[in-house]
Amino acid sequence: MEQYSSRFSAAFDSMKDAVVTSRNKKAKSTIGELFEQHQFVAFYFYRDRSTLCQAFNDHLCRFVASEQEISERLQNSESNSAESTCDKKPVFVVVCIFSTEDKASFQKLAAKLPWFVLERTESRAREKLMRIFRVRRAPCFSLIECVNKSVCAADCCKDVQEDPTGTEFPWRPKNITDVMNGELLCEDGTKKHFDTLPKGMKGVLFAAQWCPPCRTFVSKLKETYKKIKLTHSSFEIVYCSHDRTEQGFKKFSSQMPWLAIPFYDPRSSLLAKMFRVQEIPALLIFNEDWRLINRHGKFEVQADPLGKEFPWYPRSVIELTEKTSFYLREDLSLVLFTEGTSIDLTFAQTFFLPIAEEHFNDQYEPEIVFFYAGDDPVCDRILEVFGLSDLPLPLLCIVDPFSESLYVCDHPNVSGEIIRIFINKFRQDELVAKPFPKPNTSNV
């Protein structure tokens, strides 16, 4: 949760004056005031007409009803990290964040929900929160401790559902090695303890036998795994099952030349929650200290089936190609579109690369992914999809998949100084967002 906490803390001052209201309680406040008045603030990302959100509302109501019980438990717990002055404050407050900007829809939703709501006009705060917590689906329930602005959970929907009385609240993050600790199944059916694994790069695979894309991916991964083992003998993969039956698990895991967490073992779901795995198959890559270095292992395998670039550390600048374009759907991205000439390449190496390295700063999950777009055919298709094909090149833009927005630099001459100004304006909320063209979004 360190990345989430640092980004939230850095952005807090720019969001603290955002207005929130409660129609039921006829109350009006700001995000900053709620943080001063409570021990924890939860942001509930809600989508209209979502049956999942409607079902989660019932779970959340039951959880909120347990606030007094949770408060007493926190006060009596030696593990309570809040200062004594916070003990007298209400434990938590919920702030709903809607995806709609339609006034009528917003007012209808705000009137029927019993919690605070981020006002419709606070679009900047909404977009920033969605980026911080990487919200691409609803419901999402993010919990922050007020005293130090630390993120306890980027999404604790499952905790609310499975722990309705808040026995384990505030569900602070656990160390991955503590979660992984225990027996693992080997390919031959024998068992191996996690503590005995040699130090080295590791992969954690989330998949299921009933999922056709998972079966296809695992078939490819087996070949890549064999290639990687030739040069990285200590590399190992651990399978976290999403199988529905033990029979399916046994059938699928028996085909894998790596380790597996046993079926029904809660570690698989805990790891999926820890790293916000929202789709399968998913392959996360960790360094020898079990620090996440790449959450896009699935795409790396597809782009580098021979594992020549393994361990796939993040790069400060990525060339935009058919194989790397998936990032635009997954991460906040800054793209420099060019004609792909030698002059463009020299400019990218001289000015764009140093700026990217400044922002990269050795982060394994950088806030912004930098792209250089040259003459690969996919670049023209992306420009067309985003409605930018008529604009002159070079062209600088930021692609935000979380709020489904584009930010386009309107300066005709891109330079190192212009790139820095553009990024700073984005950070300071001075750019105008353009929504993704709806009909063609799925083609990106």
The main sheet comes to: 7 strands, mixed
Spatial order of the strands forming the largest sheet? 2-1-5-4-3-6-7
Please state the CA-atom Rg, rounded to the nearest Å: 23 Å
Query: How many beta-strand elements?
Result: 20
Q: Gap between N and C termini, in Å?
A: 29 Å
In CATH, the topology of the largest domain is named Glutaredoxin
Task: Describe this structure as you would to a colleague.
With 444 residues, this protein is of the alpha/beta class. It folds into three domains: 1-173, 3-Layer(aba) Sandwich (Glutaredoxin), CATH 3.40.30.10; 177-303, Glutaredoxin; 317-435, 3-Layer(aba) Sandwich (Glutaredoxin), CATH 3.40.30. Helices cover 37% and strands 20% of the residues. It is built from 16 helices and 20 strands. It has helices at 2-15, 31-37, 51-64, 67-76, 103-112, 123-132, 157-162, 176-180, 212-231, 246-253, 267-274, 297-303, 327-330, 342-360, 377-385, 416-427, and strands spanning 19-22, 27-30, 40-46, 92-98, 116-118, 140-145, 150-153, 183-185, 191-193, 202-207, 236-241, 259-260, 282-286, 292-294, 317-319, 333-337, 369-373, 395-400, 405-408, 434-435. The protein has a seven-stranded mixed sheet, sandwiched between helices. Strand 13 (282-286) and strand 14 (292-294) form a beta hairpin. Helix 1 (2-15) runs antiparallel to helix 6. The radius of gyration is 23 Å and the shape is globular. The model is unreliable at 82-86 and 440-444 (pLDDT under 50). This is Thioredoxin-like fold domain-containing protein. Residues 203-289 form the Thioredoxin-like fold domain.
